[in-house]
Design a protein that fits this description.
This protein has 5 helices and 9 strands, in the order ααβββββββββααα. By secondary structure, the protein is an alpha+beta fold.
Length: 187
């Protein structure tokens, strides 16, 4: 009986430790499904599926910060989403913009939403960069370093908007925000 238990535990540990670590495709897939940018449905009964393993997402690598933080972009119309299962169909929802940018911390596999998403994780990114650093870096210096990466994110603007709770700031615009079709309506 003990030998069966040891065999089962060995198999369980081997399976658990051999699983792949999260990657940027997983991060984009999870974020897109969570925010309903991508909706996956079974063709036969239209039930919604929340499994990012059913899709493959093509993204562009933008830059890196200290080799620990990697920046990626998904652009509608340029990058592709491929279905990995023919029994499902996909819908992509976006209205006011077409670009999403994520950062990925390769030490703890955390992703940070920086552009296009319904939330912004810049403050968490700054905190985690400081945790990775041997000495504390001022926010001003860190924001300048990130801005110098030239990845299409207004880091200083986002920082100011988040600190002042200005959620209507242009730099915090999400792709799910409505798009004005014919100008503003005056009352």
């Amino acid at each position: 009986m003990k030998s069966y238990l040891l065999i089962i535990l060995s198999i369980y540990n081997a399976i658990g430790f051999s699983q792949e670590k999260p990657n940027i495709n997983d991060a984009f897939g999870l974020r897109f499904i969570e925010e309903r940018v991508i909706v996956l449905n079974k063709k036969n009964d239209k039930s919604v599926l929340n499994n990012p393993n059913l899709i493959s997402i093509e993204v562009d690598s933008l830059n890196t910060y200290n080799s620990d933080i990697l920046f990626y972009r998904f652009k509608l119309g340029k990058n592709k989403v491929q279905l990995l299962d023919e029994s499902i169909e996909i819908s992509i929802n976006s209205s006011s913009c077409n670009e999403y940018i994520l950062a990925l911390n390769i030490n703890n596999y955390t992703s940070y939403r920086l552009k296009g998403f319904n939330g912004n994780d810049l403050l968490f990114l700054l905190r985690d960069i400081n945790r990775l650093s041997s000495s504390k870096i001022s926010s001003k210096k860190l924001l300048l370093s990130l801005s110098n990466l030239n990845i299409g994110v207004d880091f200083s603007g986002i920082y100011k908007a988040l600190l002042s709770l200005d959620f209507e700031a242009e730099c915090l615009k999400t792709c799910s925000d409505g798009k004005e079709a014919h100008g503003k309506i005056h009352k």
